[in-house]
Write a structure and sequence with these properties.
Blueprint (H helix, E strand, L loop, with lengths): L6 H12 L11 H12 L5 H10 L5 H15 L4 H7 L5 H14 L5 H6 L5 H13 L6 H6 L6 H14 L5 H7 L5 H14 L5 H4 L8 H13 L2 H4 L1 H8 L4 H13 L3 H10 L6 H12 L7 H8 L4 H14 L2 H7 L8 H10 L9 H7 L5 H14 L2 H10 L5 H11 L5 H10 L5 H14 L5 H7 L5 H14 L2
Length: 481
């Protein structure tokens, strides 16, 4: 006999009823809801629960039957398979979907009943089962999912392509290439993206034929995929043509593809068109391509882009060059120390921050006196990364900066230096009248793990100001006291 449900069971019922897509959320009658609550309350009871769930499979309320399937799958496991196969013949499509998903989760595959369900008269059954097959990587049904690209319903075809993309098997190549010709743009575009993620260069034979399409969404997807699949080498003429396309979206797609796959062929094509890229956005995207590669063939173009007319491009090129830390590129970086735009000068200061690079110190010294506080702060931060005696002088001088945030940056930066002079300054600043200075200095002492500062930090841990006490205790914890 089924017992009365608990409040917790009632809450689970709500989740069961709302788990369906909107199209399937038909309101169960009061009796149906009550029965579902009772079934939920029986979870974990074994045989009595399984018996109750099986009885509910013949209930006249579709919501009850669906809930019974879900509960039976969890309670009985594989022994529920015969009942689930029977439920595939149910008159309600969402009951069939629940049974099909249960079989996919429990059964040995391939299963003829699932293969047949993928041809179900109702679109939602075909679509939902295809989605589930992809989500849980059921490769045994790949052939059947592949055949669904000819389904009359666009949503089913989309689910088929999505499933093949998720499974990511080379056996999907042919059906995905066929799906790129779908009349629905969304299906065709997803098929192109799926071919790209499949990573099989054989897809280029289809994609390159699509490059002349007038549909810009498809053309953009093709441009990206061609480069990612290595087409810059085997289809250099087409890649060059796409990079010169009048549509900014096509150009940006191929540049983004080059960033993901910056092979030598792609770099050569881009460098040949660098002076002809028409927009600031294109040239900024080109910087990101060169930044993504370790090839020496990126150096010359980056030097050009460091001198670009647009500050945004110069700034990003400077940062890319600084990341590579190659002498020829760093020589180009320092040519922008007096750039008219503070954004660029700040990037120069940041780019010069490499450990032990004494050659950066004269330039950082100049930038630490820049009219812009942001530039000065970047110079101080980079000086701490350089870490030499000359760099320490920059940071010590910045302690008196007119902008408080630059001075605070200098205090924080002291904790990165190994020199005794930096440590002595931190101890002095830990007793400063300015609270932010004190807190930053105490934090720096903890960062340095300075045993000699322990007595002072213990005294600070008794301060009347709570934030100072917390900072001191945190520093002591870092030191191991």
């Amino acid at each position: 006999m089924i017992k009365s449900p608990s409040k917790a069971a009632a809450a689970v019922v709500v989740s069961l009823l709302l788990a369906l897509p909107a199209a399937a959320q038909q309101k169960a009658g009061a009796a149906g809801k009550a029965l579902i609550q009772q079934m939920v309350a029986m979870k974990g009871q074994g045989a009595p629960a399984i018996k109750a769930y099986k009885e509910a499979l013949s209930n006249g309320d579709a919501q009850v039957r669906r809930a019974a399937i879900q509960l039976l799958v969890k309670e009985a496991g594989k022994p529920a398979i015969p009942d689930l196969k029977t439920m595939l013949a149910d008159s309600d499509e969402w009951v069939v979907i629940a049974a099909g998903i249960g079989l996919l989760d429990l059964g040995e595959h391939p299963m003829p009943e699932i293969q047949q369900a993928l041809k179900h008269d109702h679109m939602d059954v075909r679509m939902e089962l295809a989605e589930h097959i992809g989500e849980f990587d059921h490769t045994a049904y790949l052939t059947h999912v592949g055949s669904m690209i000819s389904d009359p319903e666009p949503k089913v075809r989309l689910a088929s392509v999505r499933a093949m993309q998720a499974i990511s098997s080379k056996d999907s190549l042919q059906p995905l290439m066929a799906a790129t010709a779908d009349a629905e743009r969304g299906v065709a575009t997803l098929a192109i993206q799926a071919l790209e993620s499949l990573g099989d260069p054989r897809a280029l034979q289809r994609l390159t034929r699509m490059a002349n399409t007038e549909d810009l969404a498809l053309k953009r997807a093709v441009a990206h995929a061609v480069v990612v699949l290595g087409g810059a080498s085997s289809h250099a003429e087409l890649t060059t043509k796409l990079l010169a396309d009048e549509d900014v979206g096509v150009r940006r797609s191929i540049l983004n593809g080059m960033r993901e796959q910056p092979d030598e062929a792609a770099l050569s094509i881009l460098s040949g068109r660098l002076d002809k890229l028409p927009t600031t956005g294109d040239r900024h995207a080109a910087v990101l391509v060169y930044k993504a590669t370790e090839s020496e063939n990126s150096h010359g173009p980056l030097v050009k882009l460091i001198a670009d007319p647009e500050a945004r491009v110069r700034s990003s090129a400077v940062l890319a060059a600084g990341q590579k830390n190659v002498d020829a590129l760093m020589d180009a970086v320092v040519t922008r120390v007096e750039d008219k735009e503070a954004q660029v000068r700040s990037s120069v200061a940041y780019a010069l921050g490499h450990e032990g690079r004494e050659a950066s110190v004269p330039h950082l010294t100049k930038l630490s006196k820049d009219p812009s506080g942001d530039v000065r702060a970047s110079a101080v931060q980079s000086a701490a990364t350089v870490g030499t005696e000359g760099a320490l002088k920059i940071v010590l001088a910045a302690l008196g900066d007119s902008e408080s945030y630059v001075a605070i940056q200098a205090v924080r930066s002291l904790g990165k230096f190994e020199q005794e002079a930096a440590l002595e300054k931190l101890r002095e600043l830990a007793k400063h009248s300015d609270l932010q200075v004190r807190l930053s200095a105490i934090s720096g002492l903890g960062m340095r793990k300075d045993k000699g500062s322990v007595p002072m930090l213990k005294e600070l841990a008794k301060e009347p100001v709570e934030v100072v006490r917390r900072a001191a205790r945190s520093a002591l914890d870092q030191i191991g006291e």
